[in-house]
Amino acid sequence: MELDEVIITRAIFDEYSKTFLDYTEVDVALIGGGPANLVAAKYLAEAGAKVAIYEQKLSLGGGMWAGGMMFPRIVVQKEACRILDDFGIRYKEYQPGYYVANSVESVGKLIAGATSAGAEVFNLVSFEDVMIRENDKVTGIVINWGPVTAQRLHVDPLMIRTKFVIDGTGHEAVVCNTILRKIPNAKIGNLGKLGEKPMWSEVGERLAVDATREIYPGLIVAGMAANAATCSPRMGPVFGGMLLSGEKAAKLALEKLKEL
């Protein structure tokens, strides 16, 4: 069989453009493709929600790929092992209460789990802004190509309508910071200041889950973004809190969707 390059080009553009147009309206837009949002995406999609992940980089997984200081292993506490089981991620007990998993396998299976459940991924797409309408609620996001943002090119963005947004952008808490920059008096964060405290794994892990909440109408924070938005400690290469945060974010979003 001979391959026609034009057909290959048309197949890629045609299928992607159809998907892009279909996802100009979603139930939940997840900003950032880190572990918390990958977990949230799987559980949301399995529950029937129309969800899309927007990741500005080429690959998903956030900081989980590199494990701790480029040693490709992560630590997960017992409470989160059931989520590893849900995704088919292998792990072993290192000491009582400490479980170790391969970071590369973990990311691969988190991505596979989210996409197999029906979540759509738009990588190399960056978040630029939010749309806020009635009752000061977030009702959409503004996006552009990741390389456009990286190169600081003056290219106008496009818009996606969504019922809820989950900020899973890690230390930067990009969505939260955007709202604070655009609406200085917004009741978000600690007196309008964002950013995590110094590392304290035990407290940071617990607060990653506790801080997962609807922090602004229509906006839920998850993972390290939740820590940054509430000025909680960072936790290092321990990922149980991130996984549990993603699970909680999905539950919160599903509850909110039922109220609409």
Largest sheet: 8 strands, mixed
N-to-C SSE string, H for helix and E for strand? HEHEEHEEHEEEHEHHEEHH
Helix content: 25-40%
Overall pLDDT score: 95
Task: Characterise the protein shown here.
The protein has a single domain, classed as FAD/NAD(P)-binding domain (3-Layer(bba) Sandwich). It has helices at 5-22, 35-46, 81-87, 103-117, 146-150, 174-182, 201-210, 224-229, 240-259; strands at residues 25-31, 51-55, 73-77, 92-95, 98-102, 120-123, 125-132, 138-145, 158-167, 213-216, 219-221. The N and C termini lie far apart (52 Å). α2 (35-46) runs parallel beside α9 and α7 packs parallel to α9. The chain has 260 residues and is α/β, with parallel strands linked by helices. The strands form two sheets. Strands 1, 2, 6, 7, 8, 9, 10 and 11 form an eight-stranded mixed sheet that branches. The protein has nine helices and eleven strands.
Task: Give keywords.
single chain; 260 residues; alpha/beta; FAD/NAD(P)-binding domain; 8-stranded mixed beta sheet; 3-stranded antiparallel beta sheet; 11 strands; globular
Give a brief outline of the structure.
The chain has 260 residues and is α/β, with parallel strands linked by helices. The chain has one domain: FAD/NAD(P)-binding domain.
